[in-house]
Design a protein that fits this description.
Number of helices: 8
Number of strands: 7
Largest sheet: 7 strands, parallel
Order of helices and strands: HEHEHEHEHEHEHHE
Shape: globular
CATH superfamily: NAD(P)-binding Rossmann-like Domain
Strand order of the largest sheet: 3-2-1-4-5-6-7
CATH architecture: 3-Layer(aba) Sandwich
CATH topology: Rossmann fold
Structural class: alpha/beta
Distance between the termini: 40 Å
Mean pLDDT: 91
Low-confidence stretches: none
Helix content: 40-55%
CATH class: Alpha Beta
Amino acid sequence: MSITDLFSVEGKTALVTGGSRGIGLMIARGFIEGGAKVYISSRKADVCEQVATELSEIGTCIALPADLATEDESRRLAAEVAEREPGGLDILVNNAGANWGAPLEDFDEAAWARVLDLNVKAVFHLTKFCVPSLRAASSPGAPSRVINIGSVDGLHVPSFDTLSCPTSKAAVHHLTKVMAAKLAPEITVNAVAPGPFESKMMAATLDAFRDVIVKQCPLGRIGEPDDMAGAALYLASRAGAYVTGAVIPVDGGLVTTI
């Protein structure tokens, strides 16, 4: 097998949640440029459609808007993918997420629940409902893939008042291992733990602390789209077929400094 084939996603079908911006968009674009058919989902239908139209200029991209904070929406999205793709789903990327910042004494139930519902429950429910499609696309030696987007903040205690988000991402990392054991051998389940990347969720933090973060980072820079796309392509291609239950930091080495 050539190196090109080893890392290829040509002809595969993927669903990327939160695929209209940030890390989800980086991954979706990488898959599309690699020849995959990609469904992107996000809460705002107009934005999802606009981004899908733009990405369709480089490959096949289809918008399937959904608000994954509820189990019913996860069920509906999985059913729509299954109807459109009777041959199955090769790759599921659980990227949709939320963050919230507030001091401990001001962190109320609504803020806590909103983040945990989307960051943890949605990962579980959507994966659960997509299992039949993922199994349908799997074959011996070529398992289907689930890639969960965690965070480096789930691997250490961050200094910012974002209590629910790092807690939720640590849960995602462990859920990844639990699902990897349950769904093998037909499906692999891995997580990527991003460090600082240019995204809407990170925008305020980077505006205030970019120089500090870059100084702390052993590789001396903020993550770029190719860094995230590369990690996802590895896990989604033949190159990552024997990897499951892993949590891979893509953070420029930040986790080693804290």
